[in-house]
From TrEMBL, chain A:
Belongs to the UPP synthase family. This is ditrans,polycis-polyprenyl diphosphate synthase [(2E,6E)-farnesyldiphosphate specific]. InterPro entries: Nus1/NgBR, UPP_synth-like_sf. It comes from Electrophorus voltai. GO terms for molecular function: ditrans,polycis-polyprenyl diphosphate synthase [(2E,6E)-farnesyl diphosphate specific] activity. Its cofactor is Mg(2+). GO terms for cellular component: dehydrodolichyl diphosphate synthase complex; endoplasmic reticulum membrane.
From TrEMBL, chain B:
This is Alkyl transferase. Its main location: endoplasmic reticulum. It comes from Electrophorus voltai. Belongs to the UPP synthase family. PROSITE patterns: UPP_SYNTHASE. Pfam families: Prenyltransf (PF01255). Its EC number is 2.5.1.-. InterPro entries: UPP_synth-like (IPR001441), UPP_synth-like_CS (IPR018520), UPP_synth-like_sf (IPR036424).
Length: 339, 376
């Protein structure tokens, strides 16, 4: 009998994986195509508006994209009611695309987010800090207005000496690894224990505010308000455990994994973040769309409702719309803070 | 048993449970039981009723966990932040907790039979004295049981837990039991309230919120996080299966990430030991170079002495914690009787206002004659 159950289990998981693949394929080949049409139409309209209508010049596609994106960034910054102060970009994928991460960082800057952290659990971005920085500078030149570029960016690198803060800095970018998580708490604990050993303080002096002040270091960077997780693993994988007590996560839901998960490698297309996150914010009682097993669950338990799909499949080829939707979702969240 | 509902799964549920069990199963599941108040609003009942239904759902969920061979469950019952709620609601929750712990003490025989060990994690000194005593009695009464474990986080936040662990280590240093260089990630884990439990494999939060709210932040760094939109009092067996399926899909990646983390931890410990040994040899050797064989021997000896020191410290820490509960659970002469009388009085008053109760006696062990048969 155990063999039968095992066989059924394998079939079930194979079906789930197949379902994920089909949904991802649909996203890549159908939704992205229709999204692209929409984007082209919008780009054309925005370019005309930006450059004066009608324009007799023939504008190249790349230039049109850049101009339309810049116009879009300006309007989007004003449209977002509530912005997170600090966004964490949590990459739980094996393959790392520096350009896509750089895009995300620059979009954060453009809409006015003050602090951005980039994290992966293998410490790859931390080790290749300078490469990421170069990519961010490059994308900054591509995507931002000249005036925004001048004031924008401070990059904090642990490998280099502590930098002086840029006076007119708008966005601080930190590149993090697991060493900034539990290990930094352990180091702070060692520091406190050493001061007790040297009779500089007693154990009763140790409190949450004291530990918090040690873990903040000197930069006084606030806790992340929002973490955007990219990749199929539903875990924080060691990201800043002390700092994420009230952080909102853009993360898989159980239903998502059944109906519209993500591809771990290759070109994972992004379904529009905007609609996914707007759905998520309204979706406390929204029943999800298709999926063999989802419908199965619905039949078996009519009273149960499932979160609609809101995923960040991958940072690779992530679209600006996806990013913006995550921010709109964040704006809709309500923190009760225990009350 | 009021804390774990009696009953078995139906045929379909049993079938699906057997299929699920063919794959990797979580051994320890943590729940953030969110949504009681929204449920109460939705059903147009009092908030307190929502919380009571939430407790009933916990009892049912624990039964499902046992049916699925999940033998350790941790629940977030009351956060330190929840003290910010209205006095009425906080008092109601404290009263509910007292009633449930009282009933638990009534059912000790059943708990012994099922081998249920209750642990309460949090800063219990923030709670009313009488509730502290009830909790201590429950913990002491079930301490030796080892078939299944229920960890209730009460007056808990993860940051307090972590800061408390650091405080305990600093106390160890003050007592001469530890060196500051002994502080490590492994030792931190052993000093948390949850030191006797493995890390949760799966954390489930209901009601659609997508944050951790200061719950097990250290312990869940490599756990599968599942956020479900269902309100806690409406949680079903299928919701639990859904979450377990999610865990099973994530299992290979999580294992891999955890192994990577363990390797890194081992490297850090080795580096720390090497650095301590180098310093020791430098002091002893008076500047003379030490050969690698001697260095290796010194390293092994140092590691062994560190482990022995840590083991003794942890033993002392556990004794300190057990002594706290033993002391709290002991009789307190008149104070105890007065507290019991007060509880009965409040319980009688509450019975009329709280239709969720089954109408069984809520009276304590000494006052069972007061029970009325107000059956539904």
């Amino acid at each position: 009998m155990a063999l039968v159950y095992e066989f059924v289990w394998r079939v079930l998981h194979a079906l789930l994986q197949l379902q994920r693949t089909i949904i991802t394929w649909l996203r890549v080949h159908v939704w992205k195509w229709s999204g692209r049409l929409w984007k082209r139409a919008t780009a054309a309209l925005l370019v005309s508006l930006a450059l004066g209508f009608p324009s007799h010049k023939k504008i190249g596609t790349q230039t049109a994209k850049r101009v339309s994106r810049r116009v879009r960034l300006r309007t989007d910054e004003k449209a977002l009611e509530k912005l997170p102060l600090h966004v964490g970009l949590l990459i739980v994928e094996d393959d790392h695309q520096y350009t896509d991460i750089a895009n995300l960082v620059v979009w954060c800057m453009a809409v006015g987010i003050s602090y951005v952290s980039v994290y992966d659990n293998a410490g790859v971005f931390r080790r290749n800090n300078s490469r990421l920085m170069e990519e961010i500078m490059k994308q900054q030149r591509e995507l931002l207005d000249p005036e925004k570029r001048r004031t924008s960016l401070e990059l904090i690198s642990h490998s280099s000496e502590q930098q002086e803060p840029v006076l007119s800095c708008q966005t601080v970018v930190k590149v993090l690894s697991p060493d900034d998580g539990k290990l930094s708490i352990v180091r702070a604990a060692q520091q406190l224990c050493k001061s007790v050993e040297q009779k500089e303080r007693t154990s009763t002096d140790i409190s949450v505010p004291l530990l918090d002040s040690l873990l903040r270091e000197s930069k006084d960077i606030p806790d992340p308000d929002l973490v955007m997780k990219f990749g199929p693993v539903d875990s924080t994988l060691g990201f800043l455990p002390w700092h994420i007590r009230l952080t909102e996560f853009m993360i898989h839901s159980a239903v998502l994994s059944l109906t519209g998960g993500q591809e771990a490698g290759g070109k994972a297309c992004s379904r529009s973040f905007r609609s996914a996150l707007e759905q998520h914010s309204r979706s406390l009682l929204t029943v999800n769309s298709p999926g063999i097993l989802v419908n199965g669950f619905q039949c078996l338990n009519a009273g149960s409702v499932l979160v609609s799909s809101s995923s960040l499949p991958s940072h690779k080829d992530v679209s600006y719309e996806d990013f913006l939707s995550a921010l709109r979702h964040y704006a809709a969240c309500e923190q009760r803070l225990g009350k | 048993m009021s804390w774990i509902r009696e009953g078995e799964l139906n045929l379909l549920e049993r079938l699906f449970a057997n299929i699920l069990k063919a794959g990797p199963m979580p051994k320890h599941v943590a729940f953030i039981m969110d949504g009681n108040r929204r449920y109460a609003r939705k059903r147009h009942v009092e908030r307190q009723e929502g919380h009571t239904q939430g407790f009933d759902k916990l009892a049912e969920t624990l039964r499902w966990c046992l049916n699925l061979d999940i033998h350790e469950v941790t629940v977030y019952a009351f956060s330190i932040e929840n003290f910010k709620r209205s006095q009425e609601e906080v008092d109601g929750l404290m009263q509910l907790a007292k009633e449930k712990f009282l009933r638990l003490l009534d059912e000790q025989e059943n708990l012994r039979k099922h081998g249920v060990c209750i642990r309460v994690l949090g800063d219990l000194t923030l709670l009313p004295d009488d509730l502290q005593r009830l909790i201590a009695k429950s913990v002491v009464a079930t301490r030796a049981h080892n078939k299944c474990f229920l960890n209730v986080c009460f007056a808990y936040t993860s940051r307090h837990e972590i800061a408390n662990a650091v405080k305990e280590m600093a106390w160890g240093v003050e007592q001469g039991l530890l060196h500051s260089s002994d502080v490590s990630e492994a030792l931190m884990s052993q000093c948390l309230y949850s030191s006797r439990s493995p890390n949760p494999d799966l954390l489930i939060r209901t009601s659609g919120e997508v944050r951790l709210s200061d719950f097990l932040l250290w312990q869940t760094s490599h756990s599968c996080l599942v956020f479900q939109s269902v309100l806690w009092p409406e949680y079903s067996f299928w919701n639990l299966c859904e979450a377990i399926l999610q865990y099973q899909l994530n299992h290979p990646s999580l294992q891999k990430a955890w192994e990577l983390h363990r390797e890194s931890q081992a490297m850090q410990q080795l580096e720390a030991d090497r650095s301590c040994v180098a310093e020791l040899l430098h002091h002893r050797g008076n500047g003379k170079p030490v050969d690698s064989q001697a260095r290796q021997t010194a390293l092994l000896r140092y590691a062994a002495s560190r482990e022995e020191r840590v083991r003794r410290f942890l033993c002392t820490l556990q004794q300190k914690r057990d002594a706290f509960f033993d002391h709290m659970s002991g009789p307190t002469l008149d104070g105890d009787k007065a507290a019991k009388a007060k509880e009965e009085k409040t319980a009688k008053g509450k019975k009329g206002a709280n239709p969720a109760e089954n109408g069984e006696a809520k009276a304590d062990q000494a006052q069972k004659v007061e029970a009325t048969a107000d059956a539904k």
